[in-house]
Design a protein that fits this description.
CATH superfamily of the largest domain: Transferase(Phosphotransferase) domain 1
Low-confidence stretches: 1-51, 216-224, 411-419, 440-466, 762-766, 768-785
Catalytic activity: L-seryl-[protein] + ATP = O-phospho-L-seryl-[protein] + ADP + H(+); L-threonyl-[protein] + ATP = O-phospho-L-threonyl-[protein] + ADP + H(+)
Transmembrane segments: 414-436
CATH architecture of the largest domain: Orthogonal Bundle
Number of domains: 5
Organism: Medicago truncatula
Membrane topology: Single-pass membrane protein
Distance between the termini: 84 Å
Enzyme class: transferase
């Protein structure tokens, strides 16, 4: 049947069929095209269903358990293993979704508030070049109480499958497609096209019988893998048909059912299977988690994976891969050798170790190879060094102390005289003994700071302390089954909760898939159990049940400073309140740097980590990257990236040298955000610029009116404003030694606040009292010093 014929005759065919039949029943659910129709209504035992249905993948999106659908005998699985992102929701109980066969699947949802493209990956056991029907169900059920109209796009691989549009009154919609994949994996992706969050209820794959669906012969097309989107499936079996029987027939015409499909043409080819297999293996081996590393790596171009550049008009190939500062560990994986079109490869500032592999020299198109800042060892391979010497390859290997540059490395002598061995052993014992004595001495000195009861756990990493221990069931009750998300980071999600005494709290759940998040989680626990200050967010309790770990904090009503400074926010913070926020944050940082022994460096100061309570009092949060150092002047060379781009001290980026001055630089960027009302990274029409690139020329020009947030409409004291600008400039000095200590910054910020309150004569009695309180120094609990 030709495509143009279908488009021309389809309306007439449908009309004739509808007229010819007394009763037509739309059947959106067909269990298996290979199954005998007589078997469809027969119950299937749980024993058989538990073995799964051959050729079936059935996912109840948003379900938290696998289960048997009794009416159909189909075994449904959860999302686990099929999708890496999203969150589970349940439809409103007042929405009636009690449909036979598929109603249960409609009541749970997997929604994707983050990222533009989120993908399910299906890997049927039967593999590629088989014919499959893929069916997706979508419901909304007013799960968020917003009564929204759903609108987003559904992609099959790199091609648009269908635009999903339905209202809350429609309750649900579904779509089916017949697909013959050329690879062993099939990607089904939900793409966000506006403010509406995409959600899916069910995703199903069914192996089709070639004897029934001979689409290659049915349709005249040069496309070797046509896509057929189902338009209708009509069951006319229950009713007699009224169709013109011929004179040669002794029986009436019989029509059991018919299906109508739409041919999808002008399809794009996916990325080269060789490149896809290589990059997926790299992602899996190094456990790379980047939000948009889903679906096809190169297409559609607007959803191309972060760090990739692809070329090719017909079949895209990966030509550039940037995995700098991606926390890669272990050896350089051989999968890189399959990316044969690579021209640029950046693996710098990771923790890669072992010898530099020979196969990197045999990538035929490689022009730039950056391996700076790893732990690689042994000589550089001869062919690789030769390419570098011939200038056909730009090779960067600095910062690998054990990597031999000359090609004639001397092997270490493993034969050591016996006397030297005994001397070394004696020296080790002596060092351990002295270390143990010093440890005991330090511990004795530290006991007056932290009560011994806080360290009485026998289990390493345990959260046992005087803080309240919550069970997982209590966490579920507190958060109303994780109903409302208020934040998310590398550790996992943060939910709002309510304790039995009606106190609001923030509950941070550790994601089981986040290795680095677990380290940050432990660091935050250990720190918050020993430090207490009115300008640091307080820890209320914890949950520690196997892999389930959570922290419960005081809830900060007004969110974070970055949210409050956004242009879209109608609640504009006046100049006086901005200065108070700066003073509060400086108090918190002063306590960490100078009130704690040993000093603590936050290492991730940014406006989103400054939280605000109902009175806009500021508290520093998120101590997952914080570290304690031996003394006030101590520094440390860090091999692991820390901080957030835009706030990170350039000196730390160059040298890895970690000290208190890194925090001072970040604090200076926060001051500039308070001053200007702009983000650390300002989005311009064609580029993103750093706030310093924008503000420093204005400062040099003496243009204070255009520096201060325009929304304040000139309501600020000029002397106060200039002084804060000067403080901020001193914080971001390129020479770290010239940056002031936070206690000096605190004194100057208080003077700025004094100028604003007193000189403008706008301060209420409460303001003057608060200013006096601020001048007396930080409030510290006895156990913290």
């Amino acid at each position: 049947m030709q495509t143009d014929y279908m488009e021309r005759e389809l309306p007439q065919i449908v009309t004739l069929m509808l007229k010819a039949c007394v009763l037509l029943a739309l059947v959106p659910f067909i269990c298996n095209s290979q199954a005998n129709s007589e078997q469809l209504d027969k119950p299937v035992s749980r024993e058989i269903a538990n073995k799964e249905n051959p050729g079936f993948i059935s996912i109840d999106c948003g379900s938290i358990i696998d289960y048997l659908q009794e009416d159909t005998g189909i075994w449904y699985k959860t999302d686990k293993g099929f999708v890496e992102t999203g969150e589970n929701h349940v439809t409103s109980s007042i929405i009636n979704l009690n449909y036979l066969y598929f109603g249960k699947q409609l009541t749970t949802l997997r929604c994707f508030p983050e990222g533009d493209r989120n993908c399910y990956t299906l890997k049927p056991k039967e593999g590629k070049n088989k014919k499959y029907m893929i069916r997706a169900f979508f419901s909304y059920g007013n799960y968020d109480g917003k009564n929204q109209t759903q609108s987003f796009e559904l992609y099959l691989g790199v091609n648009l499958w269908k635009k999903i549009n339905f209202t809350n009154t429609d309750h649900y919609t579904f779509t089916e497609i017949i697909h013959t994949p050329s690879t062993d994996t099939i990607n089904v992706c939900l793409v966000k096209t506006g403010p509406i969050i995409p959600c899916i209820s069910s995703l199903e794959l069914r192996l089709l019988n070639n004897s029934i669906y001979q689409n290659h012969q049915m349709i005249s097309t040069n496309d070797p893998e046509p896509l057929l989107e189902s338009q209708a499936r009509i069951d006319v079996g229950p009713s007699p048909c009224l169709a013109n029987a011929t004179s040669d027939s002794d029986a009436p015409p019989i029509l059991n059912a018919f299906e109508i499909y739409k041919l999808m043409t002008q399809l794009d080819s996916p990325t080269s299977p060789q490149d896809v297999g290589a990059i997926m293996d790299i992602k899996s081996s190094y456990q790379v988690y980047k939000l948009n590393w889903q679906g096809d790596p190169c297409l559609p171009t607007q959803y191309r994976w972060e760090g990739l550049v692809c070329k090719g008009d017909t079949i895209p190939r990966i030509t550039s891969l940037n995995l700098s500062s991606s926390k890669l560990t272990g050896k350089i994986n051989i999968s890189f050798s399959y990316l044969t079109e690579l021209e640029f490869l950046d693996l710098s500032y990771n923790e890669l170790e072992g010898p530099l592999p020979e196969f990197l020299a045999h990538l035929p198109n490689l022009k730039v190879l950056n391996l700076t800042g790893n732990k690689l060892s042994s000589p550089i391979p001869k062919d690789l060094k030769q390419k570098a010497d011939n200038k056909t390859l730009e090779l960067s290997v600095a910062g690998n102390p054990d990597l031999c540059m000359t090609g004639s490395c001397k092997k270490k002598n493993i034969v050591v005289p016996l006397v030297a061995s005994f001397s070394a052993l004696f020296l080790i014992i002596l060092i351990i003994s002295l270390g143990f004595r010093i440890f005991k001495r330090q511990k004795a000195l530290y006991i007056h700071v932290v009560p011994p009861a806080r360290f009485n756990s026998k289990k390493r990493g345990s959260l046992k302390s005087k803080h309240h221990a919550f069970s997982y069931n209590e966490i579920l009750n507190i958060t109303d089954n994780f109903k409302t998300i208020i934040g998310e980071g590398g550790f996992g999600k943060v939910y709002i909760g309510i304790l039995q005494d009606h106190t609001q709290v923030a509950v941070k759940m550790l994601s089981t898939s986040s290795k680095q998040g677990y380290k940050e989680f432990q660091s935050e626990v250990q720190l918050l159990m020993i430090v207490h200050h009115r300008n640091l967010v307080s820890l209320i309790g914890y949950c520690d049940e196997g892999e389930i770990k959570a922290l419960i904090y005081e809830y900060m009503t007004n969110g974070n400073l970055q949210q409050y400074l956004l242009v879209e926010n109608s609640n504009i913070i006046n100049w006086t309140k901005r200065l108070k926020i700066a003073v509060d944050a400086a108090h918190g940082l002063d306590y960490l740097h100078n009130g704690c022994k040993p000093p603590i460096i936050h290492r991730d100061l940014k406006s989103s980590n400054i939280l605000l309570d109902e009175n806009l009092h500021a508290k520093i949060a998120d101590f997952g990257l914080s570290r304690a150092f031996g003394n006030d002047n101590d520094s440390h060379i860090s091999t692991r990236p820390a901080g957030t781009f835009g706030y990170v001290d350039p000196q730390f980026q160059r040298t890895g040298n970690t000290n208190k001055k890194n925090d001072i630089y970040s604090f200076g960027i926060i001051l500039f955000e308070l001053i200007t009302g702009k983000k650390a990274l300002i989005k311009a029409p064609d580029e993103t610029i750093h706030i310093l690139q924008w503000v420093i020329p204005l400062i040099k020009g003496g243009d204070i009116q255009n520096i201060i947030d325009a929304r304040l409409q000139g309501e600020f004291n000029i002397n106060s404003a200039w002084k804060v600008v000067e403080v901020a400039m001193s914080c971001i000095s390129q020479i770290a030694a010239e940056r002031p200590d936070i206690n000096q910054i605190l004194v100057e910020l208080k003077e700025c606040l004094s100028l604003e309150i007193v000189q403008r004569n706008s301060g209420s009695a409460r303001d003057i009292i608060e200013l006096t309180t601020l001048s007396t120094g930080p409030e510290i609990t006895p156990s913290a010093r």
